[in-house]
Amino acid sequence: MEQAGRSSGIVSRHWFVRLSPMVLALAAAFLCNLPAEVGAAPTRPHAHVYLLRGFINVFSLGMDEIAAELRRRGIEASVHNHLAGRTLAEEAAAGYKAGTERPIILVGHSWGASEVVGMAARLGELGVPVKLVVALDPISDLVAAGRVDRMINLHASRSRVTAGPNFHGNLLNIDVTNRPGVGHFTIDKVPAIQSLVLQYVQSALRVDAPAVHPSPNPTQAAVSNPAHEQPRTQ
Q1: Nearest to 59, CA basis, from 178, 189, 155
Q2: Neighbouring-strand partners of residue 172
């Protein structure tokens, strides 16, 4: 009886040893022939809205409110200190070239508004286009550069953005001083201005979407092209 048991065990192990290579080969063949979608799905391109706050990171909390609403609408948005502008430009360029972040949209207030104009210029140097830039009352007059579909300066203190020789796109300067409650430290928090920014972003992300035209009419519109056309005042 004991001998029979040992014999049975030897036979079982014998068959297991013979079957193991066959099982492994079949498993390998099965795994190699799995359809591509069973593996890790490739990352699809998605829009990314970068929002930059102003001085010492505390006077532009309207950026957080806009970002929260964008996320609620299914649009990726992140809020940053304006001092991170150059690093963010490098990161955005890397994402764009990797095919994961497209298109790129920039929104900023005060010092952050000045920085997003600078980010667009840096991205242009890196060969990366920007879909939309919205500057909320920059701290000073600025000269734009880069490849930007639309750059919109909503200003409450008469700070203008003009198209430099290396700017390619459409540029608008819009005076919003007559809007209720609008000032340099409040422009980002005024619901009407926030709503306008959200409209600009969603319009930029829709193919063939009609342009958003606020009221009052823009005080200045500029179109720059490879021929380095200078701004024109309407």
Answers
A1: 189
A2: 152, 221
Q: What is the mean pLDDT of the chain?
A: 81
Confidence of residue 115 (pLDDT cuts 50, 70, 90): very high
- Amino acid 189: pLDDT: 97
Q: What is the pLDDT of residue 63?
A: 98
For 59, phi and psi rounded to 5 degrees? -100, 10
What's the predicted TM-score (pTM) here?
A: 0.75
Assign domain 46-224 one CATH number from 3.40.309.10, 3.60.10.10, 3.40.50.300, 3.40.50.1820.
3.40.50.1820
Order the strands of the 101-109 sheet from edge to edge.
Answer: 76-80, 46-52, 101-109, 130-136, 142-155, 161-175, 220-224
Q: Which residue type sits at 191? A: P
Neighbouring CB atoms inside 10 A of 119's CB total 28
Question: What is the 3-state secondary structure of the chain?
Answer: CHHHHHHHHHHHHHHHHHHHHHHHHHHHHHHHCCCHHHCCCCCCCEEEEEEECCHHHCCCCHHHHHHHHHHHCCCEEEEECHHHHHHHHHHHHHHHHHCCEEEEEEEEECHHHHHHHHHHHHHHHCCCCEEEEEEECCCCCEEEEEEEEEEEEEECCCCCEEEEEEEEEEEEEEECCCCCCCCCCCCCCCHHHHHHHHHHHHHHHCCCCCCCCCCCCCCEEEEECCCCCCCECC
